[in-house]
TrEMBL record:
<dbReference type="InterPro" id="IPR023395">
    <property type="entry name" value="MCP_dom_sf"/>
</dbReference>
<dbReference type="Pfam" id="PF00153">
    <property type="entry name" value="Mito_carr"/>
</dbReference>
<feature type="transmembrane region" description="Helical">
    <location>
        <begin position="97"/>
        <end position="117"/>
    </location>
</feature>
<dbReference type="GO" id="GO:0031969">
    <property type="term" value="C:chloroplast membrane"/>
</dbReference>
<keyword id="KW-0472">Membrane</keyword>
<protein>
    <recommendedName>
        <fullName>Mitochondrial carrier protein</fullName>
    </recommendedName>
</protein>
<keyword id="KW-0677">Repeat</keyword>
<feature type="transmembrane region" description="Helical">
    <location>
        <begin position="12"/>
        <end position="37"/>
    </location>
</feature>
<dbReference type="InterPro" id="IPR018108">
    <property type="entry name" value="MCP_transmembrane"/>
</dbReference>
<keyword id="KW-0150">Chloroplast</keyword>
<keyword id="KW-0813">Transport</keyword>
<dbReference type="InterPro" id="IPR002067">
    <property type="entry name" value="MCP"/>
</dbReference>
<feature type="repeat" description="Solcar">
    <location>
        <begin position="95"/>
        <end position="177"/>
    </location>
</feature>
<keyword id="KW-0934">Plastid</keyword>
<feature type="repeat" description="Solcar">
    <location>
        <begin position="14"/>
        <end position="86"/>
    </location>
</feature>
<keyword id="KW-0812">Transmembrane</keyword>
<keyword id="KW-1133">Transmembrane helix</keyword>
């Protein structure tokens, strides 16, 4: 959808609805398939000094995470698609990258209200702090208040808004370039490969921000770090600059494979929904 299309454009409400379904489906498939890699990444980032990581319970928190990921992914794509469409109308074609960057950031901001509590609960469970998601929510709120569910919110936005903007911009721009060169629509495998490339690059670039977000989210009521800047200074002082790249290998692997699955499922679902809409419209015209 990045480069526009032929024929009559669907209205924004339909774009939002179809985007929400496609985004929800893609998000759930990725989380289910790659959750153990994410757990390993979280534990690597959380380990301080020479502490060893646990290899048990790599699926800890998956069910509760999916409950949050489904609406969060639906909100993200449901906002991203119509925002992208509107911004592409506002910007000249040679500035489409700005439209994609902005739409990615807007989608990320909208979904962060759901994504942050989901991420907090998930990471605390990955660190074996709680046994079930309902227990995690109840105890976090009891000990830290509602704000406990939004621990690291600022660092999450600092990581995820650039991440969402860069990943979707790279993906959309590569698709536009590929379609122009190939002079045809992309195949499912090609969308998946472009998604993997966009995810891996973005994952590597944003790893330092991800390390700080992880530390802030899992610290609990003890508040080892006073905020984003204090977290960065403490990590640098106590563990050195190399600590900012903790978990980069599983993160790049996870987001690269995740990008392949997410964008592959996303485009396939969008295609199925568009075909269904076209068939329904054709019947109505008869």
């Amino acid at each position: 959808m990045g480069g526009g299309g032929n024929g009559e454009s669907p209205n924004l409400l339909q774009v939002l609805f179809e985007g929400a379904i496609a985004g929800g489906a893609a998000g759930v498939v990725v989380e289910t398939a790659l959750y153990p890699i994410d757990t390993i990444k979280t534990r690597l980032q959380a380990a301080q000094g020479g502490n060893k990581i646990q290899w048990k319970g790599l699926y800890a928190g998956l069910a509760g995470n999916i409950v949050g990921v489904l609406p969060a992914s639906a909100v993200f794509i449901g906002v991203y698609e119509p925002a992208k469409r509107k911004l592409l109308e506002m910007f000249p074609e040679n500035l489409s990258a700005i439209a994609h960057l902005a739409a990615g950031a807007i989608g990320g901001a909208a979904s962060s209200i759901i994504r942050v509590p989901t991420e907090v609960v998930k990471q605390r469970m990955q660190m074996s702090q709680f046994k079930t998601a309902p227990d995690a929510v109840r105890l976090i709120v009891a000990k830290e208040g509602i704000k406990g569910l939004y621990a690291g919110y600022g660092s999450f936005l600092l990581r995820d808004l650039p991440f969402d903007a860069i990943q979707f911009c790279i993906y959309e721009q590569l698709r536009i370039g590929y379609k122009l060169a190939a002079k045809r629509d992309l195949k499912d495998a090609e969308n998946a490969i472009i998604g993997a490339f966009a995810g891996a690059i973005t994952g590597a670039l944003t790893t330092p921000l991800d390390v700080m977000k992880t530390r802030l989210m899992i610290q609990g009521p003890g508040n080892q770090y006073r905020g984003f800047i204090d977290c960065a200074q403490t990590i640098l002082r106590d563990e050195g600059a190399g600590a900012f790249l903790k978990g980069i290998e599983p993160r790049v692997l996870w987001i690269g494979i995740g990008g392949s699955i997410f964008f592959g499922v996303l485009e396939k679902t969008k295609s199925i929904l568009a075909d269904r809409t076209n068939r329904r419209d054709a019947k109505l015209k008869l």
